[in-house]
Amino acid sequence: MKAEKFELSPPTLRELTAALKAPLAANFEHSNVEVVQCPDLRRAPFHLAMQGLSGNEKAADVGGQPNLFPTPIKESIWSLTDIAKAMEMSPEKGSLLGAGAGPFHQVGQNCELTPNISWQQSFENVHNGSYVAKIDPEVMDVRVIPSPSLNCALMINLFGSAGEPGEVIKVTARKRIGKQNSFTECIRRALHARYGDTQTISLGGVFLVRSGKIHYHIMPDFPADLPFKNFTHLNDWLEYRDFSIPTVCCSVLHSADPDKKMALRMEHTHCFSPNGQHAGGHYHFDVDPEGEIVEYEGYFTTAKVIYRLGRPAVTLEGDLHDELHQ
């Protein structure tokens, strides 16, 4: 994969906490932003593969939406451990979480992936806690299963770290009163409002949807009538579901694209039910009337470098996420 690297100099977590407080308070009746010690993410209610989010913190944007639209580039398949090596992560200890397209060649159909892995001593000694969300073609309903491999495809956004305990930003929010109905977009836009296009803040982490009805999409299998004719054709192909089931969400977001040169996906979040229920996929926003019920609890920290890996030669006009769901 072609590799591009951009070093970051993020503000302290306490400075970022101060930047987030007012925008969160304007959007939620109850909110709090503080710096805390990261809880053990291996335990309930998170059930992740890593203990924490600290140590050697990095972000990666791999592949991209042109690998899906207008014609899927099915040769775009990568191993998460190969991506970790391209991110210059240590083989002694590390972890990855994020959002991407699943290993369709092994699942048997196109699908969503919530990557969630850690390793000790070598890249061969991996704990794979990743989940796949797919549409069962027989009943046209969502199924969430453990990922059968360490592979991903088409596009993926990742946050990497040593997986160690350490300080993180804790964000809690309940009862939305503003118009920004995406938790992650509320955070991302708040950072952009504070730091603009001249300084990129990249966050990675996990949040819980504790309550509320949330809008997700799940990619079904690739359609027969390819290529996609336009965004409307693509949108009609996606399967949308609203779930009120609590989910664990892994997220990577950027306040700005460094020098507007890396063709980054600005926000990407995938979720799964930690209770074995068939709920999850690509997170969009809450759909609660007036936001009365929705409640979030998130833990994030900053990346110190961004890797742009396997950038497609073609750049789409705009972001598919924004085009389809604005």
TrEMBL record:
Subcellular location: Nucleus
Record SUPFAM superfamilies: AF0104/ALDC/Ptd012-like
A cellular component annotation (GO) from this entry: nucleus
InterPro entries named in the record: C11orf54_DUF1907
Single annotated GO MF: zinc ion binding
Species assigned in the record: Exophiala bonariae
Protein name: DUF1907 domain-containing protein
DUF1907 domain location: 19-309
Alphabetical UniProt keywords: Hydrolase, Metal-binding, Nucleus, Zinc
Record text on subunit structure and interactions: Monomer.
Pfam families on file: DUF1907
